[in-house]
Structure of AlpA family phage regulatory protein:
Amino acid sequence: MNKKEKNAIIMLLDNIELRSKHTIDELQHLVRQIYSIKELIKSNDVQQPNYEQIKELVQNEMPSLRPTSPNDLIRREEVINMTGLSRSTIYTLMKNSEFPLSIKLSERSVAWRRGDIQNWISDKVATKN
């Protein structure tokens, strides 16, 4: 197997790993929701939630189950949610070459590759350990 083939396989495995991690995170979120709703139902509160309240709670907090790809373009709000960084910190880190660069979509619109942000987060976690 040559170097090019090895790199292609590693890239493919990285993509599978990122998709799997995202799916696991979504499933863990759903399990927490189920647990919360069951606890709410089991509680001895006088005012028990009705079906419509629970349905609304689930619909409002349901994460997107759309499959994601490292090549997905994500907007600034999602980057902020993923990293916990403020807008100004993101742009300062980009200026200092410490954060993935955004991609200009139009005159007033930018996005980032999901995989770049996930890799940046993974690198931060790895350097912490």
User: Anything to note?
Assistant: Residues 19 and 69 are 7 Å apart (CA to CA). The chain has a mean pLDDT of 80.
